[in-house]
Write a structure and sequence with these properties.
Helix content: 10-25%
Number of domains: 1
Largest sheet: 4 strands, antiparallel
Order of helices and strands: HEEHHEEEEE
Strand order of the largest sheet: 1-6-3-2
Shape: globular
Radius of gyration: 20 Å
Low-confidence stretches: 1-25
């Protein structure tokens, strides 16, 4: 009788664990960080898919608690660099992320300070890091 109860308890725990995994994977993407400085000096978008590339993110103090060990097998990461800007007030944001049968399409929005805005006269390098919970090909628009 104890064996039957033990087996049922283990089965119940395993099936509950599977439900949690499915719920958390329904989120298609997550913006891990958006920074006004610290990015590259040219405008580029880099898609990280390989474990050694993703490991680099784990060494970044801003991302170390957001990038997990097993992420390389089920997620891709995108670094959106806006390039060098002459003032503060710039940012690069994710407008929307769509999943098709073959790929993931990320639409970005580059934000500039208003013409009459008071901005600091300093060189900035805005960037954003996005985690995409899919291994499909990524297209950035």
């Amino acid at each position: 009788m104890k064996k039957v109860i033990s087996v049922l308890a283990v089965f119940a725990l395993v099936s509950c664990g599977a439900k949690k995994t499915t719920e958390s994977s329904t989120v298609l993407y997550e913006v891990l960080t958006t920074q006004s400085s610290g990015g590259g000096n040219i405008r580029f978008f880099e898609i990280l898919t390989e474990p050694n590339e993703i490991k680099m993110l784990q060494n970044d103090p801003l991302l170390s608690d957001k990038v997990k060990e097993g992420d390389s097998s089920k997620s891709n990461f995108v670094i959106l660099n806006m390039g060098e800007k002459n003032t503060s007030g710039y940012s690069i944001d994710v407008e929307k992320v769509e999943e098709t049968d073959k790929n993931i399409i990320i639409t970005i929005k580059e934000i500039s300070p208003a013409k009459d805005a008071m901005v600091m006269q300093m060189i900035s390098y805005p960037y954003t890091v996005v985690k995409v919970n899919s291994k499909k090909e990524i297209i950035v628009k």
